Structures are given as structure tokens and as C-alpha cells.
Amino acid sequence: MKYPVKLGLVCLARETFDFKAAAEIYESIKRDVAALERVTWEIIPELVISVEDARKAAERLAAALPDGVVCISGTFHLGHLALEIRKRVQKPFLLWGLDELPYNGGKIRLNSVCGVNLNASNLYKAGVDDYRASIGPKIDETWVDAIRALAALERSHIGIAGYRAHGFFNLSVADPELYADTGLLVDHFELSELYGEGVEQNAVTARREQIRATFDVSGLSDAQVGKVAELAARIDAFCARNGLDALAIRCWPEFARDFGISPCAAMSLLQAEGRLLACEGDLEGAISMLLHKAVGAETPYLFDFSQVDLARNFALFWHCGVAPCNLWDGRSCRSLDSYFAGGKGVTADFVLKPGELSIARLDSARGARRLFLQRARAVPMEKELKGTYLKAVFDRPVREVLDLVIGKGIAHHASVAYGDFMEPLKVAALLKGWEIVE
Questions:
Q1: How far apart are CA 261 and CA 251, in angstroms?
Q2: Using one digit for the tens of pLDDT, what is the confidence trace for 217-265?
Q3: pLDDT at 375 over 90
Q4: pLDDT of amino acid 341
Q5: What's the CA gap between 327 and 360, in Å, rounded?
């Protein structure tokens, strides 16, 4: 389910062109956009023609607090109009131009594209970069989804339990810079708060039954199954009580020692239910999953770029056993295992399903925010390893992807989601002025 947004809609015109035809088109557009999924509209009902019209429209839109503004050039218009609205509403703009109508007596009727050109030039020269232009009869839904991603960052509540994993300096985050770039404020919690979250026994019992119904647990003791159930109930309750949209967890080295198991299996279960949980204290990994979810990905998760086979041109996306269990391929044995951490690992073990993949990693380096994006395809493979994993074939040679990751110092985690979510995130990065690494 995509992230909900509020958008403003306004149509600019000039009476020296066919403004009556523009008004008719605008009425049709109003009906069309009302069908968009999870979008609330603040619509300026009449054409905006004069500077005074624009000022009134700006006040109304500003009061509605939209996440973005759709500014239609119904015809060519005064250059003041878009600037007056931008003065009051400093949010991303979609500059929407209409296809030209058949000529009437040798006269151009709309000249809409020229209006888009005028607005873009005025905004650019005024130092405004968060606009996108689109020409055609339908709204640019890629831009709408990009606004969903940015709105999710501004409004989401994320947390970190503990710190980043020991030695993973590349996962460190500077909180003030993150806030400046995204609007996100991070809440820090101690791991002891997670361990000690109060839960009812019936919640633990329900989780125990769920685990046995979901996984082959023949390799675990009853006590280990009980620990996974208890932890799943505690993490779920902790996120709910604190209103967290995403949580990064320092899952080693002390977690298994202090709680009795690692959180991998519990995280696999909860992520299948829509919880965004990042292992190893990876806040930017959690944010990358948040971006994927905002544009419609169901269960994004973090993976390690663990192995490449240059001769056969594939990569292994692996992690110790935390992928959402609903992404199981349906063929391999979906089991729990305690193969590491002295028998306290308790990870999920299965092969993930085949399908189209979108990969994203939002992070920062050398004072700049950047977004790593790739396309790949998961292909069938046999279960040969512990943990959760898939075989990925990129839409380019794997050597090129590896060279890009290494050459740009991309962190060793990225979010992967089934489906194609590349373009909305790319547009979001362009609107924010982030570097795109692809």
C-alpha cells in the first residue's frame, strides 16, 4: 500500500488564448486525479489568470499544507502566477503541460508547453530545483510516487536500539545532517528497553504457534522456539508502543549473549507482517526500506552483496537469516536454525522466490547524500546454505555493478524489493538534489 499524500492542484491560464477549452480540460483532469490511490487533493476550482488570483490560490494551498503542488499550464500565462504560489508553498512542483489542441483559424489555442518552459526557467533562475515537468493528458504518477517517498521521510518515526554493529563504521549516521537532508529525527533506545518490553503471555503463545506453523523447527529446542516467540512479541509491542515506522537493531555482538538468542528469526517473522526492521544498527538501511515501502513495495528487506560469480554473471544476495518469511520460494525447506553464535543464532533459513527486483540504498559519504539504485532479477536456485538468500542476475554485467559498489564506497547493505520501483525513487533524489549512483 502506497504512502498517503496531500497534493495541491491549480490550473494557470490567460484570456488571450483558448482559456475556455483549458477550463474544460481542467474539469476532466479533476475527475481523473480523484481516482489516484491514497491522494487527498486541495483543488483550486477556477482557472488562475490574474496575479490576485494567484495570491488567493497560494494562500489557500499554503493553509492546506500539501506535500507537493501540481501546477497545470492550461494555456500560456503570466510568469507571476507560479512564482506567487511558490512563494507561499515551498514544496516540490509538477509543471504539467497539455497537448496542443487542433489549430483554430491558424491560431495556436493553448501554447501550454511554452507556459511550462516559462515556469521552469523562472523557478530555475530563482534557485528553485525541486520541480519536474510533464507533458500529456494524464498526471505524471511517477512524480506523485516520488512525493510519497519524500513525505514518508518527513513524517516517519524511526529508531535505533543500541548502536551500529561493532566495527561497521560505514553504517554511522550524523543525526543533524540526516534531519537536514530528509526531515527524519532518530530516537535512540537501549537494547535493554527492547529486551524488557512488557508483553502478555497469550501474545507469546500465539507467536509460538505461528512459528511452528510457519517454519520447520525440528533443529531447535522448545526453549529456543519459546525465545523466538517471546522476542517477536516484544519487538512488535515495542514498535507499536513507540509509534515506530522503522527500527534498526544492534543485533550483535551482545544480543545473543544478553537475551539468549539473536533476533534474526523474530525479525523474519515480523518483517513478513510489514514491520521495517534493519539488522546491525543500519539506520540508513532502514530508511532505504522506508523509501521502498512508501512507493508500494510490500516487504522490502536488507541483504548483503555476498558473492559474485563473474564467469556465470550472477550475485548472491545473502544474509544470516532475516529476510521476510513470506518471500520464501515455496520449494525449499523454510526452517529455523541455530548455526552460529554458539547455538544462539536462531536464524531463518530458506531460498527466496524468483522475480523482478529493485535495489536501493540511501546513504551519505564525503558530505553528500546519495541514492544507489539497481535492477536485477531473482532466479531459482537450490537450498545450499544457512540463512536467507537468492541468486540475482542484473540487467548489466555483475562486474560493472561490483565495480560501482566498490568504487563509490556503497555500504554493504541495501534494500531489495520485489517489483519495479526505480523511477519514483530516482525522481525523489532529483527533487532533493541527491547524487544518483546507478
A1: 10
A2: 999 999 999 999 999 999 999 999 999 999 999 998 999 999 999 999 9
A3: yes
A4: 66
A5: 18
Q: Where in the chain is the domain with CATH 3.40.275.10?
A: 153-437
**DSSP letter (8 states) at residue 171:** G
Closest CA to 28 of 95, 132, 82, 99: 99
DSSP 362-388: EEEETTEEEEEEEEEEEE-----SSSE
Q: 5-139 in CATH: which number? A: 3.40.50.10940
Per-residue burial over 381-408, b if 16 or more Cβ lie within 10 Å, else e, is beeebbbbbbbbebeeebeebeeebeee
Out of 3.30.530.20, 3.40.50.1980, 3.40.50.720, 3.40.275.10, select the CATH number for domain 153-437.
3.40.275.10
Composition of the chain by helix, strand, coil, percent to 5: 40, 25, 35
Q: How many C-alpha atoms does 1 have within 13 Å on its Cβ side?
A: 6
Residue 387: left (phi > 0), alpha (psi -120 to 50), or beta? left
pLDDT digit string, tens, across residues 319-370 = 888 999 999 999 999 999 987 667 777 899 999 999 999 999 999 999 999 9
9-34 pLDDT, tens digit each:
999 999 999 999 999 999 999 999 99
C-alpha cell at 389: 538468500
Give start-end residues of each CATH 3.40.50.10940 domain in the chain: 5-139
End-to-end CA distance of the chain: 26
pTM of the model: 0.96
The residues near 90 (Cβ < 8 Å, ≥ 6 apart) are none
